[in-house]
Amino acid sequence: MYFQINELRKTFTVSINLPEPGSAEERNRFTDIQQQFHVQYEKVFPDKLAPRTVVIIPSLTLDTEILSRVKGFIHYEERMLCLLMLLRMPLTKIIYITSIPIPDVIIDYYLHLLPGITGRHARKRMIMLSCYDASAKPLTQKILERPRLLDEIRQHITDPCSTHLTCFNITPLEKTLAVQLGIPLFGTDPELFYEGSKSGGRKTFRTCGVNLPDGYEDLHSKNDVINALAKLKKTHPLMRKAVVKLNDGFSGDGNAVYSYKHIAADGDLEQNIAASLSKQFRPVAKKVSEKLFFEKLNKMGGIVEEFLEGDIKASPSVQCIIGPDKKIDVVSTHDQLLGGDDGQIFLGAVFPADKQYNISLAQEGRKIAEALSAKGALGRFAVDFVSVKQSDNSWKHYAIEINLRKGGTTHPYLMLQFLTDGKYNAETGEYTTGTGNKRFYFASDNVTSKKYIGLTPHDLIDIAMFHSLMYDGATQEGVMFHLIGALSEHGKLGMVCIGRSPESAKEFYDKAIHVLDNECC
Fold this sequence. Notes:
The chain is an alpha+beta fold.
């Protein structure tokens, strides 16, 4: 695991009751706590009137140097505000912790979406806490370094037997937090981190009999990468590009693309690739240098794989949940919107995935979920694919990575589900609301314009109301905004646009962009 807890050990205060982070005692305590979760999942989760407390930690516990290069990264903690919709259940309490305080106007915006619950009733059951720390350190680390904040969280947990912890991703830091709070995590033990890494994912795909791009894993040096690039070119002489990925990349920013331009599949291939690397190797994240990329590869490892070509191809994903009972639920399929020079950066998603292939896609996702379940994985995760249309009009799906955590398709789907009380049927490829209507959405995390800089959350909400962009609970259509806190400083926000057809969902998105552009010109 790349993220170490040495710094945490330095600040850890010895306690009779709490084991040292990373110790065998902590692992044993964690195992004991997690065993309680099975009862919660069986008895509390299905009962909408059961008293429960959900502690939400939206920490992006990822490489800080890579993460800090994502515009407005601190506001990505707002994406899990979709879980405030759990307050629609009248006896549910939420404890939500962030790096910096979230303005009341943003909280009010989410609470007004709650069906059947007043804002006042919801606020009585919602505790918002903050570290008041905007640094790039993981939020979970910030919490663990603040004993008084930990005590305050504990005081709000009135019944540990009906309380659980949910996080964006789970590392040893989140494991330590679960033990120190004495509540179970709804997610995979970080000791299985490798299974969700780029290298581990490729091995899982092979064992499942799922297609994957040709390539190599468990690479830890520049020489490893050069040798792997050379082997790929020898095997596929016409190959034009290859992708190099860090094992623990995020949203495509841990990827790089190597172009074989002017590199022939003969001669001293390794030497030619090494000589061309500085010109033809390009990290996806604009502010990540070749030097920094390989420093990260040395620490966390990575892979090299072919860049899949095709006249018609798509980048779909499958989202699944594995319960403590090992039951697998395929909860969604998406077509991902990718940007950047080589289509490596996640921008948003269309739900459901194209009807030409969403059923077969879900079947491939289930195979992978079954393998992960057998290895002990738990909770929500997603598998990304590249799908290429064949000459007979069928689609061939290539699995490219496992995100053993929440991701960019998690919060749009949860908003839809909470607002419409519906479910996705993986066997038909359709989402149906609680009232029996089909719904679709077009979502983006990267609505960006310099013109939007200076637009406050109040301004955004005023504009949305004036132009009838707000989500309408009666028609179950409209626009929901997120990443609102990033708008004024970075000119960036996210949207989930729900419609009764794929076309109407896209129309809501286009209208919102048109309105914002006109209001800010």
